[in-house]
Amino acid sequence: MSDEFYRERRLPPYVFAEVNAMKARERAAGSDIIDFGMGNPDLPTPKHIVEKLKEVADNPNAHGYSLSRGIPGLRKAQAGYYQRRFGVELDPETEIITTIGSKEGLANLAQAITAPGDVILVPNPSYPIHPYGFVIAGAALWQIPKVPGVDFMQQLERAVKHASPKPVALVLNYPCNPTTEVVGLDFYAEVVDFCRRHNIWILSDLAYCEIYFDGNPPPSILQVPGAKDIAVEFTSMSKTYSMAGWRIGFAAGNKTLIKALARIKSYLDYGAFTPIQVAATAALNGPQDCVAETRQIYKERRDVLISGLHEAGWMAPPPPATMFVWAEIPPQYKALGSLGFSKLLLKEAEVAVAPGIGFGEYGDTHVRIAMVENKQRIRQAMRNIKQFLSEDPEKHIASLANEQKV
User: Fold this and answer.
1) CA 229 to chain centre
2) What's the pLDDT tens digit per position in 6-58?
3) Is residue 53 part of a domain?
4) Cα separation, 143 vs 336, whole angstroms
5) Residue 342 and residue 126 in contact, taking contact as beta carbons nearer than 8 Å
6) Which residue of 23, 133, 195, 281 pairs with 200 in a disulfide if CB–CB is 3.0 to 4.6 A?
7) How far is 123 from 373, CA to CA, in rounded Å?
8) Is the pTM of this model over 0.90?
9) Is 173 helix (H, G, I), strand (E, B) or coil?
10) Which of 234, 258, 285 is the last residue of a domain?
């Protein structure tokens, strides 16, 4: 009898686990690890949102089953957000559903629309749920390299021409985790036109749309005329309001996709805890100065981090959005790959980052640095990295090789 089941076998080893295990060992040995690995917001949830949670949780009638689709007030609040932010009108009854975080929504929609063997177009590198939600659902992936010099639209044309069977859906994620890339409405319009012509659904992940730094708010694909005919978009409260552990997100857009997701969810969950949904409603309908403050904090952290990396000789580009820096491995350590370099950085500089290989093979030249420590800790990490990069790389590489032999 096998101790590994079919869907387990379809998933590759979780490379972040290796770094996490090493991080735990180093901390147990007394090392002061500065952790930029996981995109886990360290900022507190705004006080008025927490107070609303407490208020509703005090009501004994609020502790029963909730609604899988989300309470009506929350769906209306999300519709109001889309109207204010993007000028997009949505029907809260048929075009919006509340999810238990965007990750759950993406995974369950993959289950809803995927038949075994269906081909799904997914960028590489990308956030792991984007490809593996579909892998778990039985799909075959056609991965589109997201690297310099590769034309995205040409890759779509190639996929449609050569994939068998024809692609069912395309996943997009801008601002992108991990690469931090942003796009404009012209890009979305071109993709929508292409996918409409080829009968391809679009699943857009817009989780980082409020964490931007250069004055241009990232657009929604639903702003493109006709996009709702084929597209659904996922958003999240996690980063915008520092509510990652609350697990509240949304899917919005195409009625057919929303209906399919709602049907799957109706079998799997009763929705998030009602007080959390009411508090999320208060977040969307309430004062938004907390969002601007969060954005400014991440911008200041970005500037400190990028300045420190550059002083250390590590010329990573400043991200235009997200809470991450996508940094190419320094030339002297490139041969290690992202996992080896991440382990070395953890051991020698006491800084944890996410290896790019965890986001796909085309990410193996980079590491992702999450801006989830305060500026003082970021400066300390930059000093550690500067010292590390000033030392003999051959010595460090040999040390890592010897440790791995043990």
Assistant:
1) 25
2) 888 888 877 788 888 889 998 999 999 999 998 999 999 999 999 999 999 99
3) no
4) 24
5) no
6) 195
7) 29
8) yes
9) strand
10) 285
